[in-house]
Design brief:
elongated; alpha+beta; 4 helices
Length: about 210
C-alpha cells in the first residue's frame, strides 16, 4: 500500500512537472499588432495667377503681384496698326483636384467713349452712345493651352465685343493638383481704322474661381 502511494505521488509529481514544462515551452507564444498614429490632413486648393503682357511698341505696364493679389496689364497709347497680348498662367498649387471657372457676374468687358476730341468728332458715324468704338475696331482672339475659344474655335480674330462671352464660357475647366492652364488674349487694331477710336477705352475684368472637383 505504501509503495502504491509513493508511486502515485511520483506519477503525480511527474505529470505536474510535465505540465509546468509544457507551460514553460508554450506559454511565451505571443502576437502583437499595432495601428498607431492614424491621422487626417486636410488637402489644399490654391489657385495662383501669373500675368504677363506685351505690345509691339512697348506701351505696356505689367502689374504682377503676389498670390491672392490683383494682377493686371495696361496698354497706353494704342493706335491703328498696334498689336499685343495678355497671358494668364493659372496653376492649382494645392493637393486637391479642382474645377476652374470664370465668374459670370464679375467677368466683364467694358467700353467707353472717354470724351471725343475734334478729330474723332469729325468722323462720320462716330459712336455717340458712350461706349466708344474699340468694341468694333479692336480685334482679338482668346485661347486656352493653344486651343482657340473665340470664333467657334477658329484662329481668326473677332471684334472685341465678342470677348466677354468667350471669357464667360470658361466653366468647370478641369485643373488637377499641380496642373496649369494658360489663357492667351491676342489683340490688334487695323492700320486703316483712323481717328474714330481716339481716346476710347476698353477694360477687361476677370474673376477666376477654383472649386474642388
Amino acid at each position: 500500500m505504501g509503495r502504491k502511494i509513493r508511486l502515485t505521488a511520483l506519477v503525480g509529481i511527474s505529470v505536474l512537472m510535465l505540465a509546468l514544462l509544457i507551460g514553460g515551452l508554450y506559454g511565451y507564444f505571443n502576437d502583437t499588432e499595432t495601428s498607431n498614429g492614424n491621422g487626417f490632413t486636410a488637402g489644399t486648393l490654391n489657385l495662383v495667377s501669373v500675368i504677363s503682357g506685351n505690345e509691339a511698341h512697348g506701351h505696356v505696364t505689367v502689374n504682377e503681384q503676389g498670390d491672392g493679389l490683383n494682377d493686371n496689364v495696361t496698354f497706353g497709347r494704342v493706335a491703328p496698326g498696334d498689336s499685343g497680348s495678355i497671358t494668364w498662367t493659372l496653376t492649382n498649387q494645392g493637393t486637391v483636384d479642382g474645377l476652374l471657372s470664370f465668374d459670370n457676374t464679375t467677368t466683364v468687358v467694358n467700353f467707353a467713349e472717354n470724351g471725343s476730341n475734334e478729330p474723332e468728332a469729325a468722323v462720320v458715324g462716330n459712336n455717340g452712345g458712350n461706349n466708344g468704338d474699340l468694341d468694333q475696331y479692336m480685334y482679338c482672339r482668346l485661347s486656352r493651352d493653344g486651343a482657340y475659344i473665340t470664333n467657334g474655335g477658329g484662329s481668326a480674330f473677332v471684334q472685341m465685343s465678342n470677348l466677354q462671352a468667350a471669357l464667360q464660357s470658361q466653366q468647370n475647366v478641369s485643373l488637377a493638383a499641380g496642373a496649369t492652364a494658360t489663357y492667351l488674349l491676342e489683340w490688334q487694331i487695323d492700320s486703316s481704322v483712323g481717328n474714330v477710336i481716339q481716346s476710347d477705352t476698353a477694360t477687361i475684368d476677370i474673376t477666376f474661381n477654383l472649386t474642388q472637383a
